[in-house]
Amino acid sequence: MNTNFDKQRFGKCLKYRLTDRLMVMYAIMALIVNLPMMMVAYTTGAITFPMMITCSYTMFFGIVLANNKFLDTLLPATALEKFTSFCAAVAIYVAAIMAIVGSTTLVLSIIGWQKDSDFLNIPMGYVAMAVFMVMPIGVIVGNLRRINAQSAPVAMLAPMMAVFALVFLIAAFKSLWMLLAMAAVGLALWYLAYRGYRRRQVS
Asked: 18-38 pLDDT, tens per residue?
């Protein structure tokens, strides 16, 4: 098989990812789990805090990798094509989830807005960077050899805890340097995620 990046193979992998039963199932589960967070916006008036917390649940997709290890290895494509198609599919599903959660959260926050609310609010730029930084953690955990279908939920718990820590770090150190540090850490984590995925494919 040609090891150069092939758009047709990538397209076929992406189509498989988007229609994969596990991917669809966990996307629906992620959305359902996010729904209660929308009520936080209604009761507190905060808009971005619920959005920040919801990014942790997007790593239900780390469980998909952990459960699909055998079938994923059999896909007729290179490790890079399979990894990028997975990332693209996750990005599409996450964008849809965040759009639903975000629009509903905005409406609820307007309805229940309280002028005297001092509930933690986080700029949307930090929310987007938090998503970028946290998502590869679940992928890294899902790539580990000892992670299987039974221990797969660890791939969700790890990024979830990271998000809760980020919420308070961002609130305490909101600055351009914090944003740049998150971007640098995110890039490093994505690189490690790909290295782990490629090693898993070879082994």
From this structure: 998 888 888 888 888 777 777
How many CA atoms within 13 Å lie on the side-chain side of 50? 29
State how far the Cα of 149 lies from the Cα of 157, in Å rounded to an integer.
Answer: 14
Distance from chain centroid for Cα 95: 10
pLDDT tens sequence across 110-159 = 776 655 555 677 777 888 888 888 888 877 877 777 766 666 666 667 77
SS3 6: coil
Closest to 50 (Cα-Cα) out of 124, 118, 112: 124
Measured between alpha carbons, how far is 81 from 1 in angstroms, rounded to an integer?
12
Q: Quote the CA–CA distance of 67 and 69 in Å, as a whole number.
A: 6
CA quadruple 43, 46, 48, 52: dihedral positive or negative? negative
Residue 29, burial from CB neighbour count under 10 angstroms (0-12, 13-18, 19+): middle
What DSSP string describes 76-105? SS-HHHHHHHHHHHHHHHHHHHHHHHHHHH
- pTM (2 d.p.): 0.79
